[in-house]
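Pipeline run #58 for the internal structure catalog. This entry was flagged by the ingest filter as a single-chain record with no existing model, so it goes straight to prediction. Upstream metadata was stripped on purpose; only the residue string is passed forward. Reviewer on rotation: M.T. Logging verbosity set to normal.
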Amino acid sequence: MLKCIAIDDEPHALQKLKIYISKIPYLELVATCHNAFEAQQLLAGQAVDLIFLDINMPDLNGVDFVRTLHERPMVIFTTAYSEYAVEGFRLDAIDYLLKPYSFADFSRSAAKAQSLYELLHRPRTTGSDEETEALPKDREYISVKADYKVSLVRIADIVYLESEGEYVRMHLADGSTITTLFRLKNMEAALPADTFMRVHRSYIVNLRCIKSYVKGRIFLGETEYVPIGENYKEAFQHYIERMYRNL
């Protein structure tokens, strides 16, 4: 259950949010606020997982309000002004609902928030030496929400992942791709560390799909390759030396 608050200075818009939230079974509306200052007071004593937030509000707008938050929940912006979209996503907003939005649009945005929450709050197990995550390394498939549907992707079929800003593009063994709204660092946490390695700030590779490497490039096919970032070269080289014998 995601605890959420709704912030909007327009009573009609706030009532619409209340109705929509009540229809989503995994959302719990903690409170509604008519401005950012009310929300600041609320958040000082109440932790929430998600904020539905109007941008164009008097005194303190939604964008500036988010910048004031030290412990920042997930944010979905709701506004009539499309020019704020880019700035909203720069603040790592989950989504941007342009008024007037439908319940279907709202539901898709809420589903994105739920997916990210589940990804970031998977249970952890504590081993003898360090804390490790009980993640899909014990599973054969991972579920990915994209194009208004949930796809079950066989983990072994993921060749590499590519960051595209707020999105991640999965490159699969059959040559197809799936693009989903997740940051690469979250995918890195969700995939088994013994099989997948971050080799660049924009790329994660399936170590079992590597064909060759040379001069800062990892080849995953005859011509397809990804770059090795300067900050990742040492870790990658250590893996190669540990796992393979030089002839």
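catalog note: The CA atoms of residues 89 and 95 lie 7 Å apart.
catalog note: Confidence is low (pLDDT under 50) at residues 124-138.
status: ready for reviewer M.T.
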